[in-house]
Every structure is written in C-alpha cells, then in structure tokens.
From TrEMBL:
Organism (species): Segnochrobactrum spirostomi
Domain Carbohydrate kinase PfkB: 2-298
Keywords: ATP-binding, Carbohydrate metabolism, Cytoplasm, Kinase, Magnesium, Metal-binding, Nucleotide-binding, Potassium, Transferase
Co-factor(s): Mg(2+)
Active site (record annotation): D256 (proton acceptor)
SUPFAM superfamilies assigned to the protein according to its UniProt record, in alphabetical order: Ribokinase-like
Protein residues bound to K(+): D250, T252, A286, G289, G291
Name the UniProt record assigns to this protein: Ribokinase
Amino acid sequence: MILVFGSINIDLVAKVAAIPAPGETVLSEGYEKAFGGKGANQAVAAARAGAGLRVRMAGAVGDDGFGREAVGNLAAQKVDTGGVDVVGLPTGCAFITVDARGENAITVGSGANRKVSAEAVSDTVIADTKVLVLQMEVPGRENLAIARRAKAAGATVVLNIAPVASDLPAVLAAELLAVTDVLIANEHEALALEASLALPTSADERAAIAGLARRYALTGIVTLGSKGVLAVEADGRETAVAALPIVPVDTTGAGDTFVGILAVGLARALPLQTALQRAAIGASLACLGFGAQAAMPDAAAIDARIASQVVSG
Ligand code: RIB
C-alpha cells in the first residue's frame, strides 16, 4: 500500500495574462473551483497510475462543504479515505493564479491541514505501508513522527520537500532527511533546502541535490520542468530522463503527479530509470489540462505514450 500523509485543499483558480506583482491588482474573467492540495494530488496521481494498487490518504478537512467535496472526490478516484479526519478548522484552500504561459503562483490557506496528526495513523496502517509519501503542507513535526515510524517498520519514505518554508528549522530539516529514502525537489526547493540546512550554497540545483544525496545517504531527485528530471544516488550515480515536448496549459500539480507516479514505481520495485520515465511522462501529460488533477494520466495513458515513443524513436 502507498500511504500519502499530507494536505487536502480546494483550489480557487483564476487565469490571468500575467501574475500580479506585489501591490498590483489584475482582473480575471472568472475563476474555477478544483480539487487540490499536494497530498491529495499525489494520492490521486498514484491511484490513477497504480491500476489497482491500494492508495490511502491520511489528512484532515474541516466540517464544511469544501471538506465533504474533497473527500468525495478522493473516494471517487479510488483513494482510501479512511485516514482523513474531520477537525475544527476550515478545509484548506489554495488561491491560484495561472498566467498565459501556464505558470502559476499559489497562496495556501492551510486551515485543517495544520491539524494533520501522525498519532491518528494506526500501527496496523503503518505495517501495511510499502511507500510513505510526504510533502510540506502539513506540520513538519508530524511528518517526522510518521516518517520515523514508517521507516522503522521497513517502508520506503519519499519526501517531496514542497514548499520549503522560509522558516523551516535546520534541525527539523536534517532530522527529516535522516529518515528519507527518496527526496524530491524542484530547482528552487533544492537550493532553498540547502539554505535551510545552513549548508554552503551549491553552484546550481544539480550540485545541490547531489550534495544532499551524499550527505544524507538518500536518492535525490530534482525536477527541472521542461528539462526533465535528474536523480542522484548516494554514491553519486546519476540517472536523467527527459520531459515530453509539450505546450503547457497549466503546470499546477505537475510536480505532484510526478511524485504520485514515482511512488507507484517504487511500490512496484521498478528500476529507477523506468520509474522516473513513467513519472516524468505523467507529469508532462498532467500539464495539458486546467487544474491540478484533471489531466493526470492513468497507467494506460502512460503506457501508450511510452509505446508511441518507442515506435517513433
Ligand atoms: O502542487 C499544487 C497544489 O499546491 C495545488 O493543488 C494547491 O492546492 C497547493 O497545495
């Protein structure tokens, strides 16, 4: 089983010509409501690509309409919602602007995500977990607590260090990395994490991820947008895969799609190159629709894309 411990949001998304600068107001023709939250997105991506692999969500929503809709959506996507608690804060909400190039800016009102609790996850669930997936939209101490338990029980711990809060304590970051098997960061996050840890600044994100992989004896993966993905193992071995050449409609959730599909590859014990390739293809395909979850591919869509590359290549 894949256990995703993390955030659940409703996304309110407005398309704009250009993302507003501080102090600026821009008008959008309207807005859309979509399902989001890095944790929920990763769970949906894993369930779609997992073709029957069990995916469970551990998180929290408020006792409100957004919460009921979000849980209903997860269930409809075949994610086990038995670990989603209803707490006394409003369901998380993300305010997203997407510009004409498909790039976004996001503010998350955390709400119920602040109450996500490791203690609420039973030992039985931990014992069933093959891959634990974490991100940083829930309290870091709770991430650490569940990661330690899962690691001790033999699970693979995947940490998507997104977002990297500017006040992430160095000790907490180091303790988390000490129990992480696979670290996933984008270009900015790799360098921001290095800064949080008060490590000397690397020349670029590739050097940063390599340094973190070596220092913490983990596999570090940096996602590079249209330039694909680079994985560096603790011994320095590198694996690079390309992204699909696409014109993005909306990049929201692309990183989450990558994480969810990679978790499926890890749970299935696929070779790293194969797992990375499937995840990178899935992340590219997810950019072809509006909203974080709408265009996430299922296993058949990923297979078809790989097959078409083999034929045309
Ligand atoms: O990674 C994209 C997600 O970040 C959005 O769905 C939004 O909810 C924020 O959490």
